[in-house]
Amino acid sequence: MGVSAGPADQPILRDISLSIPVEGILAVAGPSGAGKSTLVRLLNRLDDPVAGTVALEGSDLRDWDPATLRRHVGMVFQKAPVFAGTVHDNLCVADPDVTDERARHVLEHVALPPELLDRPADRLSGGEAQRMSIARALLTRPKVLLADEPTAALDGEARRAVEDLGREIADGGVPIVWITHDTDQLRRLADHVLLLADGQLLAFGHLSELDEHPDPLVRSLIGADAPGSAGEGSS
Q1: Which residues of 28-40 are buried (b: 16+ CB within 10 A; e: fewer)?
Q2: Which helix (H) or strand (E) holds 147?
Q3: What's the average model confidence in pLDDT over 139-156?
Q4: Contacts of 63 (CB under 8 A, 6+ apart)
Q5: pTM value?
């Protein structure tokens, strides 16, 4: 609560107070430089705030063991990190003791064939690598998944496949905080929306509520005034 982050003399985020929903997909949007990635980095303690407190289950993140925290708070990046070796080797980065059965199961969960376990990871397509990255994050059985523009490097079928996977994961009980610049994607996926502008909280609520927001900037950022936008968001 009351969180500011970034350089102390010129914070990127200023006085942010909110409670993140524990279900569904929270889409984080806003203009470039608004502080979206900074916010997500705070949630995984890749950065610490210069003021205020970021808490998980009522405990300040600074009181958590970092390794334990990052098993509870999974993260998927714009470009999937691919480590040397096979797909199985990449899954072992998250869980060195993962069994073959568990590895096959988690690949199936992200719609990848188990036969890929023995494939060199650097031979995966962009969409396959991103789904492998999500599988790796899921191996730790996270309480929440952070996704920093996970489809930015993808297009077409691969982009929609990752969106569908995100929806399935959220509906299965793992809430997702998903950064996006794509208003169409936001409208397809968002259960709740957090809008940032100039480092401050601009709006927060259900997509259907924000569609009626009096601020035209809010409506623009969520595509509310686009033709055919009404009723397209998740309920």
Answers
A1: bbbeeebbbbbbb
A2: strand 144-148
A3: 94
A4: none
A5: 0.92
